[in-house]
Structures
1.
Amino acid sequence: MSQAEFPTARLAAPVFGEPYLLTPGPLTTSRATKEAMLRDWGSWDADFNQVTAEIRRELLAMAGVSDDSYACVPLQGSGTFAVEAALATAIPRDGKALVLMNGAYGKRAAQILDYLGRTHIDLDKGDYLPPQPEEVDQLLRDNPDVTTVFLVHCETSSGILNPLAEIATTVKAHGKTLVVDAMSSFGAVPLTVDQVPFDVMVSSANKCIEGIPGFGFVIVRREVLEASKGRAHSLSLDLYEQWAYMEKTGQWRFTPPTHSVVAFRAALQQHAAEGGVAGRLARYTRNRDRLVAGMRELGFETLLEDRWLSPIITTFFSPDHPNFDFKRFYAELKQRQFVIYPGKLTIAESFRIGCIGQIDEAVVAQLLRAIADSLAAMGVDRCKPAA
Ligand SMILES: Cc1ncc(COP(=O)(O)O)c(C=O)c1O
């Protein structure tokens, strides 16, 4: 690999000598975000309520929606909790969903609907092929009783960025409700209601806004939320009640993840200072481009063609070499201060490397050197995947 010159790291190195997390969240956070957690907060206290109000406002602004037509409802738990609450809210008990899937998170939504007892039909495109607007159009023509369409924006299991805007336009043309899982894209890939007419959008604290885990949030059209009273299957995942209580009291309905919330406010301030969504997209795109170019120089191949590669995470095929073993590769990289992610494909051996979190091109350059060194230590001199 040629050793081009890279800018020196603008971003602080991980604080306690811990490895960089090149994973899709939890991810490497900044020192300022970690430091925001060095204080305890009373969950009923006005100071904390103000933080909650501030992050709700900021998130609505990021989605390009106003307070009178949409609401932002944060919910304790990981992203899946928020997806489950959102699906239970958006789909009437006698409704029917069309689930567009091309990976693990679309499949998970269908599994949630089975738990919820909601009828659904699925368009399953396998490990990574994108659902196409024409297919969605045909399915909606053939199934006029569908009330709600679910799509994952960036399907993190392969790294594909699905054609959300085109599909959203089709769904709206049919007058259906659109639920978007933008868990791993919101904050770094533009997603505003003028471009993507969504009804419900779900994301979480520990992805592109670079907070820590602890809660997810749902941005939902007020009409949809208001119609959902009494629909939820679960007390703690009742999005309507969470919203109604927050509106009335300014507080979270049950114990809030206080430290995660204040860390998130700090992360939002840094997000704004970096230039908002555009600034973050630019840095993640540079990370991805440097990563993909460097890996290709080493002989690796990406799962996806360039036009489908998200700036969030990239899947690489594992080398077809007798000495390559993912567990050993992972350990060699961890020893060199980088944590990567296993693959999730059913068709081939693969692994994933994230481009998000507090990393820049200088860190990616260090990673590429660490990969070259790890391969040398393993005796892998050819990275071409199996045919
Ligand atoms: C697109 C997408 N949806 C849902 C989830 C589930 O989130 P969690 O693991 O926080 O429950 C993830 C997690 O990475 C994701 O990437």
2.
Amino acid sequence: MNSIDLPSLAQALADSTPTIRHDWTREEAAAIYHAPFADLIFRAQTIHRQSFDANAVQCNQLLNVKTGGCAEDCGYCSQSSHHDTALPASKLMDPAKVIEGAKAARDAGATRYCMGAAWRSPKDRDMAPVIEMVKGVKALGMEACMTLGMLTDDQAKQLADAGLDYYNHNIDTSEGFYSSVVKTRSFGDRLETLEKVQDAGIKVCCGGILGLGEKPTDRVEMLRTLANLPQHPESVPINMLIPIEGTPIAATATPVDPFEFVRTIALARIMMPKSDVRLAAGRTAMSDEMQALCFLAGANSIFIGDTLLTTPNPGDSKDRALFARLGITPRDDLGVHAHGNA
Ligand code: SF4
């Protein structure tokens, strides 16, 4: 598909530079979220085009390098030892196997490899294999991302020295709703690790989940917390809850109205104009049309492959077909893929 010329007004808007702010008020953010849908999408799409190719999507692949047995009690998670989800716990994977997986992901079109371990925080003895994984992924020319739980300053520095590009540490929801979702740590603990990661010079991947039973105000407040950080997270994953049997939240979860989900994406794009906004977990429950609306609202990143940490993902052939129908190509951050093959 070839791009068509935008009318001059839209082009002029798209050509201007987005303003980066860290002082969003509750009222401003809520007014954007609740704006008439067409106005919201137009604004989000205009801001999106000021920083990004609107027809390119960044592709990540996720691997669970240590499954289950986690000491935290996140109410939505199959990997918590507090919930009876029948998910067997495993030891940390062999770094060589992880690197093998990264190579296959790169060959399938992923530019970033995201490795997750179900820990409250890594132990010092875990750091050597984790660092080997980071170095191995970097040697493949890919970006490396890790999510390992809470970090000490020293662990953050070790990861930075190994070349880790991104650290994922989601805040999940608003500060006010947080204790309804997680009780083993506080919202403040989360922000503390984010600060350590940013201080170490690692980029932050931080977002949340919709469908936990939160109200629209919680979604707005979650994004306002991120947008008002001294530095915006470079990646903002927005997940739609996949209820998992045996987790407390599965029993009380309320499905999210698709338009509310799209509004959340648009608000993230408007308040954090230069961040990658990722349409993360939950895509298997979304129609192609809903995903297209999310891209229109400024989502520009997905996970490829047919599994996430423990939940399903659409798979490469479905994503290839959707990208072809929408004229989207995978964003080539590394200069390794001549054409899209996600
Ligand atoms: S979301 Fe992460 S920290 Fe929370 S229980 Fe699951 S693996 Fe542990």
3.
Amino acid sequence: MNAATTPLNIALALSSAGVPVLPLRRGKVPFGNCRSCKDGACGGRPNMKSAGPCQCPAPCHAWAAATTDAGVLTSPVWAAVWREAVAVAYHPGGVGLTVVDLDNAAAVAWARETLPATRIVQTTRGEHWLYRGAMPSSNAVRPGVDIKSLMQYARWLGPGTGRMAVLPAAVRALVVKEDTTPAPGEVVSSLPTRAPWSRQVATGCRHTERYVRTGLERGLALVRARAESGAGSQAFGVARFLAAQHTGCPGPCGLAAIGEEIVTAAVLVGVPESYARRAVANGLETAVERAA
Ligand SMILES: [Zn+2]
Ligand SMILES: [Zn+2]
Ligand SMILES: [Zn+2]
């Protein structure tokens, strides 16, 4: 390693560009916590999900230690760590980015087929696709696919190539928050009744009523079948699939009414309404975007 490419020098270059960074040790993972931070004894840092008062000067708490402060990066306690560092990580959410981490060739093939082109960084076995915009992180959203953005770190492997696109709805929809199931009954009664899909709202649709109804019923059944988990992402998929059937119609096709029926089905199996609405809106939008 020459001087310009030591982890510390790479980190300083990134931090001066506003990218929060931290050192990685052998194994390409963050350094462990110091003795007073061990097992979260310190309560954690203020920027963590369970915020605590930790002001530890060492790079403890993984991504939460990432900083753009050159004074911290070159402090004596970090200097000792940099000497053992083998790589640099950054906090994508901290600089308003999302990394779609594709671990293998199959995941890369999926992304090429599904996601809008953007800036790509080659990794050991796969690729990082970078989008402008931050979102909650989540591992294994699909086989071999992790979302690294807020409260996460990603390994820095260079700036990559290609023009960075805005974070698309299709990526946001990969991370489903279904752990906030409300009390049964509560949400169902709060759903306003809206007109179901009918010919009256679909004056420009080239399909028969029977075709649209059958497709919709099939989609709703898929959502209802996911009562245990995954109904939100199923709602997204059903909305996208049904909307795609109408991209050749002059319209209007009553997609809003179709969306409402999907939202209702998802809410009835416990998906929070706001999430169901977002998932369905994203699904409808993705189908339209892709047709455009
Ligand atoms: Zn510490
Ligand atoms: Zn601590
Ligand atoms: Zn149509």
